[in-house]
Amino acid sequence: MKSLLRSMLAAMLLANAGYLMADSLADETYGTLVAADGTISLPDGFRQRWTHLGSWVVADSSAPGAGFHDVYTQPGAAQAYRANGEFADGTVLVKEIRALETGEKTTGMAQWAGETAVWFVMVRDTQGRFDSPHWGEGWGWALFEAKDPATNVSKSFEETCKGCHVPAQPSNWVFVEGYPTLK
């Protein structure tokens, strides 16, 4: 009986920890990565400190977004998603698209990630904080090029981002099937 009670208590604490992390996530994101006017910044050091959600390869060089895609989020955001199946307010997703390199290796013909081309950044906003062309459908949307990672070159959510994300609308605009870390 004590073992069952301990297990139940541990499960409750773990579930509540996901919600507590989610609350502090919004405070952190909207205090550091999103300015008061809704301007989104590319997070520093995300590759080293954040959770890698998964990778995609778009091998067709003529396709939009061709290259090797790696997607990252804050560790607390991944934990909150696993706890309740939704992206918490303040979750930041960074998709880094790199050139696709190809060559013969000892194991045969191989492909790997080359130089970074762009970063797409999505910021979860369940509060509707901003009335801006870069905010829509519960997310903030930004695009940064490797030549100038400090400047969002997206024209708007509607023009730059929405077209590619329409197939992911049923899963809150995110292609979650490619993210085994969330399972």
Named at the architecture level, the CATH assignment is 3-Layer(bba) Sandwich
Poorly predicted runs of 5 or more residues: 4-20
Radius of gyration: 18 Å
- Overall number of domains: 1
Largest sheet data: 7 strands, antiparallel
Helix and strand element order: HHEEHEEEEEH
Text of the CATH class: Alpha Beta
How is this structure best described in words?
The protein is of the alpha+beta class and 183 residues long. It has a single domain, classed as 3-Layer(bba) Sandwich (Chalcone isomerase). The protein contains four helices and seven strands, in the order ααββαβββββα. Strands 1, 2, 3, 4, 5, 6 and 7 form a seven-stranded antiparallel sheet that branches. A hairpin with a 2-residue loop joins strand 5 (135-136) and strand 6. The longest helix has 31 residues, at 2-32. It is globular. Mean pLDDT is 89; it is low at 4-20.
Chain-wise SSE layout:
Layout (H helix, E strand, L loop, with lengths): L1 H31 L13 H4 L1 E8 L8 E7 L1 H10 L7 E14 L2 E17 L10 E2 L2 E7 L2 E5 L4 H9 L18
Antiparallel strand pairs: 1-2, 2-3, 3-4, 4-6, 5-6, 6-7
Provide key terms for this protein.
single chain, Chalcone isomerase, 7-stranded antiparallel sheet
What is the gist of this entry?
Helices cover 30% and strands 33% of the residues. The chain is of the alpha+beta class and 183 residues long.
